[in-house]
Specification:
- The longest helix is centred in the middle third of the chain and has 43 residues, at 60-102.
- The protein is mainly alpha-helical.
- The protein is elongated, with a radius of gyration of 40 Å.
- The protein has helices at 3-11, 18-30, 32-50, 60-102, 108-139, 142-173.
- Among the domains are: 3-50, no CATH class; 76-105.
Length: 179
């Protein structure tokens, strides 16, 4: 027996044609499973129709309406954020795809050797800089070299002090939003 068809008819009892109603009533008279379902649906329908409507707590409507603009604004901001993230992601995907097609193929070994070469050149430049500094301080009078070192250390100390005070202020008061 096809119970699914009759179960669907039970769920849509109000919209049935007279022929379908007669067919359903005849089936319910013969099938105990569908008769129990029909009885249960009638009980549930009766309970829903006779259930008392509970009034909302005092001031609920006013609070809900008052918070509606804020919730709409949050929803709009969330949608804007999603759109921006989608656009940025799409742009990055397009740039990566274009880069893959337009850039010449480079092997990983070439990249590693170039990085190693750049690192060696950086170390060489730092070594040359310190060599220059050493020769400079050997060439200038001792008083001038001491003055240069002390003034440089003073400027570095003042910069670090200002940086520390700024971080301390941020840690204590936080950062105020300017939006």
């Amino acid at each position: 027996m096809n119970h699914r068809y009759y179960e669907n008819l039970l769920m849509e009892r109000e919209n049935l044609t007279p022929v379908q109603k007669g067919e359903l009533d005849q089936h319910i008279a013969q099938c105990t499973q569908c008769a129990r379902l029909d009885q249960s649906l009638r009980v549930v329908d009766h309970e829903l129709k006779t259930a008392a409507v509970i009034a909302p707590p005092l001031g609920f409507t006013a609070r809900w309406q008052a918070s509606l603009p804020e919730r709409r604004k949050k929803k709009e901001q969330e949608q804007k954020r999603i759109i921006i993230i989608s656009m940025v992601s799409s742009t990055l995907a397009a740039l990566i795809t274009l880069g893959a097609f337009l850039l010449p193929p480079v092997s990983p070994i070439t990249i590693v050797t170039d990085l190693f070469t750049d690192f060696v050149q950086l170390v060489d430049q730092v070594t040359q800089f310190w060599s220059f500094v050493g020769h400079f301080f050997n060439a200038v009078p001792t008083g001038l070299s001491v003055w240069i070192i002390v003034s440089t250390l003073m400027w570095v100390s003042l910069t670090l002090l200002a940086w520390g005070i700024t971080l301390l202020r941020i840690a204590r008061k936080g950062i105020r939003a300017t939006l």
